[in-house]
């Protein structure tokens, strides 16, 4: 394990544990079913049960042996990415802005950093033209600002890799005072989060996913099993196949299908309000809300944006018993000034 690169170790560690736990579940369940239903397959059932138990023991051993390295794997992966980027000088896919006196001059979604140049779109900037690094806040949040000798500023996201590459190539340091200010602002932003109300539609979808996976696995397994043998042996084979189909669907498909979903319905933070229903999730920044209105059932957000026909966009959030009180207190706490109209 020590010889594996950080990224390979991370993938191997997680993949091995999940694979062994999957083998454990399939082996134990199949072994027990065959042992109880098929007299002539007891040896096979014992073997399957043993394989399952052995897989579980191996998973525990891997967890214990690899746990210490996994705790610090983030820094190892960052160091690996940094060294790899220095050697390859590959394209970096990040959002950047070029400004002068707070006027936007250019923006893009990718750039290159080489030993000699910072390349933005079609412009190549030598590192010696960068005279200062500092952090700066604008309408898009906090960035690392690269001050050029012609007073232009290039704003890059405050990612660890980007900071390390920039300071390495430019041989400049990022000002601590502004960086601490950015970190403090980020901490305040995190502390401003409020979430409440379980996403009941999402819970129902998760239940249906498990139910359909089990029903599909059992149905397909029994159909194949009964077509291959007698009623007794067919049921045993079908049950084993059902486990082989349903368990991977749940263990692998479930987390992928419900990735990036929100378990809470309502969200408030310093900059936005959010609402989730099922897999859908809406976040509306306060800065694009012109005003708010409400009736007995809904909160209406009147946005500054227009639709294709030139009409103001209005989105709504269903009420619960906490929304209005928490929203008003939140707006007072963070000095968010918006008109609130009772319909």
Describe this structure in words.
The protein is an alpha+beta fold and 343 residues long. The protein has 4 domains: 1-87; 89-191, Roll (PH-domain like); 193-260; 264-342, PH-domain like (Roll). The chain contains 8 helices and 16 strands. Strands 2-1-8-7-6 form a 5-stranded antiparallel β-sheet. Helix 3 crosses helix 4 and helix 6 (200-228) runs antiparallel to helix 7. The longest helix is centred in the first third of the chain and has 32 residues, at 6-37.
Question: What is the topological layout?
Answer:
Blueprint: H1 6-37, H2 42-71, H3 73-88, E1 96-100, E2 103-108, E3 111-113, E4 117-120, E5 123-126, E6 130-138, E7 141-148, E8 153-157, H4 160-170, H5 176-191, E9 194-198, H6 200-228, H7 231-257, E10 264-268, E11 272-277, E12 280-285, E13 289-294, E14 298-306, E15 312-318, H8 323-333, E16 339-342
Parallel strand pairs: 13-16
Antiparallel strand pairs: 1-2, 1-8, 3-4, 4-5, 6-7, 7-8, 9-10, 10-11, 11-12, 13-14, 14-15
Helix pairs in contact: 1-2, 1-7, 3-4, 6-7
Features:
alpha+beta; 8 helices; 5-stranded antiparallel beta sheet; 4 domains; 4-stranded antiparallel beta sheet; PH-domain like; 343 residues; flat
Number of helices: 8
Sheet of most strands: 5 strands, antiparallel
Low-confidence sequence ranges: none
The share of residues in extended strands comes to: 25-35%
Q: Shape, please? A: flat
Report Rg: 28 Å
Find the CATH topology of the largest domain.
PH-domain like
Helical amount: 40-55%
Report the structural category. alpha+beta
């Amino acid at each position: 394990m020590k010889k594996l690169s950080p990224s390979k170790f991370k993938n191997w560690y997680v993949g091995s544990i999940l694979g062994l736990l999957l083998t454990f579940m399939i082996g134990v369940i199949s072994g027990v079913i065959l042992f109880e239903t098929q007299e002539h397959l007891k040896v096979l059932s014992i073997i399957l049960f043993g394989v399952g138990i052995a897989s579980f023991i191996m998973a525990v051993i891997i967890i214990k042996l690899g746990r210490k390295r996994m705790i610090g794997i983030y820094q190892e992966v960052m160091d690996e990415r940094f060294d790899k980027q220095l050697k390859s000088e590959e394209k970096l896919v990040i959002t950047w802005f070029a400004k002068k006196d707070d006027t936007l001059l250019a923006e893009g979604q990718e750039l290159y950093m080489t030993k000699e140049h910072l390349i933005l779109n079609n412009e190549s900037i030598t590192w010696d033209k960068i005279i200062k690094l500092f952090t700066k806040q604008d309408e898009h949040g906090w960035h690392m600002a690269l001050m050029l000798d012609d007073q232009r500023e290039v704003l890059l996201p405050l990612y660890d890799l980007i900071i390390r590459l920039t300071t390495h190539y430019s041989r400049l340091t990022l000002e601590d005072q502004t960086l601490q200010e950015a970190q403090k602002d980020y901490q305040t932003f995190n502390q401003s989060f409020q979430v409440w109300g379980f996403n009941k539609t999402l819970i129902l979808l998760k239940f249906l996913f498990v139910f359909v996976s089990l029903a599909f696995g059992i149905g397909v397994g029994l159909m194949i099993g009964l077509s291959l043998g007698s009623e007794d042996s067919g049921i045993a084979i079908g049950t084993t196949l059902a486990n082989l189909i349903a368990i991977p669907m749940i263990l692998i498909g479930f987390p992928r299908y419900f990735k990036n979903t929100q378990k809470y319905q309502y969200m408030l933070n310093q900059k936005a309000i959010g609402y989730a229903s099922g897999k859908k999730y809406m976040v509306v920044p306060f800065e694009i809300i012109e005003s708010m209105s409400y009736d007995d059932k809904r909160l209406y957000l009147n946005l500054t944006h227009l639709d294709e026909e030139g009409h103001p966009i209005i989105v709504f959030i269903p009420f619960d018993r906490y929304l209005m009180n928490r929203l008003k207190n939140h707006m007072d706490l963070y000095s968010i000034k918006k008109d609130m109209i009772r319909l």
